[in-house]
Automatic annotation (TrEMBL):
<feature type="binding site">
    <location>
        <position position="24"/>
    </location>
    <ligand>
        <name>[4Fe-4S] cluster 1</name>
    </ligand>
</feature>
<dbReference type="GO" id="GO:0035599">
    <property type="term" value="F:aspartic acid methylthiotransferase activity"/>
</dbReference>
<comment type="similarity">
    <text>Belongs to the methylthiotransferase family. RimO subfamily.</text>
</comment>
<dbReference type="InterPro" id="IPR005840">
    <property type="entry name" value="Ribosomal_uS12_MeSTrfase_RimO"/>
</dbReference>
<dbReference type="Pfam" id="PF04055">
    <property type="entry name" value="Radical_SAM"/>
</dbReference>
<dbReference type="InterPro" id="IPR013848">
    <property type="entry name" value="Methylthiotransferase_N"/>
</dbReference>
<keyword id="KW-0808">Transferase</keyword>
<dbReference type="InterPro" id="IPR023404">
    <property type="entry name" value="rSAM_horseshoe"/>
</dbReference>
<dbReference type="GO" id="GO:0005840">
    <property type="term" value="C:ribosome"/>
</dbReference>
<keyword id="KW-0687">Ribonucleoprotein</keyword>
<dbReference type="InterPro" id="IPR006638">
    <property type="entry name" value="Elp3/MiaA/NifB-like_rSAM"/>
</dbReference>
<keyword id="KW-0408">Iron</keyword>
<dbReference type="GO" id="GO:0046872">
    <property type="term" value="F:metal ion binding"/>
</dbReference>
<dbReference type="Pfam" id="PF18693">
    <property type="entry name" value="TRAM_2"/>
</dbReference>
<keyword id="KW-0963">Cytoplasm</keyword>
<keyword id="KW-0479">Metal-binding</keyword>
<feature type="domain" description="Radical SAM core">
    <location>
        <begin position="144"/>
        <end position="381"/>
    </location>
</feature>
Length: 451
């Protein structure tokens, strides 16, 4: 059903906002919430600076490249429009002060999740229209992802003090959303046609700790604000539910049977970061002493189809060749399905900047290359074992580069994992789930024939 179109008169009265959204999926959810409020108040979003009455830039400031991208976006908006509101991770602390000094004529600057400050600044720049046509919002709000999948943010902030990370200083301590609130949002998304939910936070495993697992009611049943009860509730919706940013705490063991039963996807995104105890200690990583290899083996015994993805940092201050070899040895034994690797780079405000034993850039590059070479061999071997298997694929649409319809298996998250290139004579649409037989595999992707 199409949304009613406002009249020409209503359009003329509608204040127009340009919007630039940068950063991670958590920042994307912040952008979606701001856009939903803007639309509810009668604002119209436009794709060009010259058509906008005011521009909002939602920034990212986690690493140097993100900082530069955010500064470039702010500078471009100031040059092209001049009326700019800045929010997000570049809006607080030393980075916020830097932005104020570089762009003294900004209308407003605020930190992440500060939706009230953004709306107050928009109101001051151009009053809301409150046009009745724009009050007819879809129940799930405004989404920046394709219609068939959506990010579901279950908490803000983080209680950890990892030495390489400044997220807690930007987004605050852990603040879990009540479980019934999350489940109501998920149900609205399901009714709107979403087929896949990507559960995100800074530490998904810690969900509910800050609320002491206080509960709520959904569909007439009591639920605790805990990871287990959240997954049980999401499992009732019949969607693909994918868990991201899961730390390998012991209570994660309770989730694995739900995966084996097909209630949520057999997929865990776990930020291991390293395997050397000395490096993990320097990183101040939680659960550093856990025997992760033993835990992985136990999970796979319960759920053989489990896909595990992770990210790692090489070249962290003090990382020796022995530490790196320990990481490679761990990787060979862990046999992870999806892996990303980054060369360590200092982040302004991170305590790791003061650590001794800086690793030369050429050594970082060499270790990164060796790490990825090993993981490519592991990934290629694991994907080749899938040749001949029949798998479910969620269709994403036409791949512009190859001209082939592509989708993702249950082992593939959007944007970060591999793709399944589909061969078929039948028409396919985005959001459709099909069964396909794997006929070919590369290091990261699959080719499959739709059955």
């Amino acid at each position: 059903m199409s949304t009613p179109r406002p009249s020409a008169r209503a359009k003329a009265k509608s204040p127009k906002v340009g919007f630039v959204s940068l950063g991670c999926p958590k920042a994307l959810v912040d952008s979606e919430r701001i856009l939903t409020q803007l639309r509810a108040e009668g604002y119209e979003t436009v794709p060009s600076y010259d058509a906008a009455d005011v521009v909002v830039v939602n920034t990212c400031g986690f690493i140097d490249s993100a900082v530069e991208e955010s500064l470039d976006a702010i500078g471009e908006a100031m040059a092209e429009n001049g009326k700019v509101i800045v929010t997000g991770c570049m809006g607080t602390g030393p980075k916020g002060q830097m932005v104020k000094e570089r762009f003294p004529d900004l209308l407003s600057i605020s930190g992440p999740q500060d939706y009230g400050s953004v709306m107050k600044a928009v109101h001051a720049a151009v009053p809301p229209a409150h046009d009745p046509f724009f009050d007819l919002l879809p129940p799930q709000g405004i989404k920046l992802t394709p219609r068939h999948y959506a990010y579901l943010k279950i908490s803000e902030g983080c209680n950890h003090k990892c030495s390489f990370c400044i997220i807690p200083s930007m987004r605050g301590r852990l603040n879990s959303r009540p479980v019934n609130e999350v489940l109501v949002e998920a149900e609205k998304l399901a009714k709107a046609g979403v087929k896949e939910l990507l559960v995100i936070s800074q530490d998904t495993s810690a969900y509910g700790v800050d609320r002491k697992y206080a509960g709520g009611e959904w569909r007439g049943k009591p639920y605790q604000t805990s990871l287990l009860d959240l997954c049980k509730g999401l499992g009732e919706l019949g969607l693909w539910t994918r868990l991201h940013y899961v730390y390998p705490y012991p209570h994660v063991d309770e989730i694995i049977p739900l995966m084996a039963e097909g209630r949520i996807l057999p997929y865990l995104d776990i930020p291991f970061q390293h395997a050397s105890r000395s490096v993990l200690k320097a990183m101040k990583r939680p659960a550093a002493a856990e025997d992760t290899l033993e835990r992985l083996a136990a999970w796979r015994r319960i759920c053989p189809d489990l896909t595990v993805r992770s990210t790692f940092i090489v070249g962290f201050p003090g990382e020796t060749e022995k530490d790196f070899e320990e990481l490679l040895s761990w990787l060979k034994e862990a046999q992870l399905d999806r892996v990303g690797c980054f060369e360590y780079s200092p982040v302004e405000g991170a305590t790791a900047n003061a650590l001794p034993g800086a690793v030369p850039d050429e050594v970082k590059r060499e270790r990164h290359a060796r790490f990825m070479e090993l993981q490519q061999k592991i990934s290629r071997a694991k994907l080749r074992k899938k040749i001949g298997d029949d798998i479910e694929v969620l269709v994403d649409g036409l791949d512009e580069e190859s001209g082939v319809m592509v989708g993702r298996s249950k082992a593939d998250a959007p944007e970060i994992d591999g793709k399944v290139y589909l061969s078929t004579d039948q028409p396919l649409r985005a959001g459709q789930i099909v069964t396909a037989r794997v006929i070919q595999a590369s290091e990261y992707d699959l080719n499959a024939e739709v059955l």
